[in-house]
Every structure is written in structure tokens, then in C-alpha cells.
Amino acid sequence: MIASPSVIQAIRDHGASAYPEEGCGFLVGTVDDSGTNRVSRVRRVANRNTENRERRYEITPDDYRAAAEEAAGDGLDVVGFYHSHPDHPAEPSETDLADATFPGYTYVIVSIDDGTPDDLTAWSLAPDRSRFQPEEVRLI
């Protein structure tokens, strides 16, 4: 994943403002010739989960459609998702893996420690959806 410091900061800020619940949203940008997701902006979305919002988030198909349409209007695509882990490491959980559906997308997780953003990691879903693989975060 390639992103600007302002994109990374927006993810960190959203995680902090959502604390103690999980915050979530979309990564919007392009895919370059090497298959790398270049994130030019984020699009926040409300956590639609109605239970255990401190440990779970939900993005609806309507949220996805709206984000994809908005991105397409600007010549961009949804290239991934982000969410926060309040008081937990920035590593995918079993639930994150079970809910992940798009190989090729970038999945960003930011840990929020007592309301303060900490580690931020990126992951890609294996083609067979069996695991997440670490993805480098490069700043531009």
C-alpha cells in the first residue's frame, strides 16, 4: 500500500475518535501497474454493528455501493478497508479473516491504546482467503 501521511493520519484520527468502539471505513484510490494499491483518500463510514462495537465493526452493502459510486465519480476505486482495534494489537483477528472477502484489497488496522493511536499495519488477503499476509505501508 502506498499512501500519503495525511491518509495515514486520517485513519489514526478516526480510530481515536471512535474509541472505545471500532471505527471503520474505505480506502479509496487506484491500483498501479505492479498491483500495488495507491490510497489517495479514506471514506469514513458508520460502524453498523449493533452489538459488541468495542470488538466488532460492520460495513453494509449499501455503504460499499455508496463509496464505490462516489469513488468512480472521481475516477477512483475502493481498494480496501480500514478499522481500529481498541486496546488490542494491530493484527487481524479470526473474525477479521472470516469477514474478509476481497483478495487484492488492502486491509488496514490501527491499534488504539487507551484512546491514543498506536501501531498501524496493512494486510492483504491470500487468494484462497485462508490467511492475511503482511503488506508494506509506503509513504509518499
Instruction: Give the tally of structural domains.
Output: 1
Order of the strands making up the biggest sheet: 7-6-5-4-2-3-1-8
Q: What fraction strand?
A: 35-45%
Total strands: the figure is 8
CATH architecture: 3-Layer(aba) Sandwich
Mean pLDDT: 97
Can you describe what's shown?
By secondary structure, the protein is α/β, with parallel strands linked by helices. It has helices spanning 5-18, 61-73, 94-99, and strands spanning 2-3, 24-31, 37-45, 77-86, 106-113, 116-125, 132-135, 138-139. The protein has an 8-stranded mixed sheet. Strand 2 and strand 3 (37-45) form a beta hairpin. The longest helix is centred in the N-terminal third of the chain and has 14 residues, at 5-18. The protein is globular, with a radius of gyration of 14 Å. The relative contact order is 0.22. The mean pLDDT is 97.
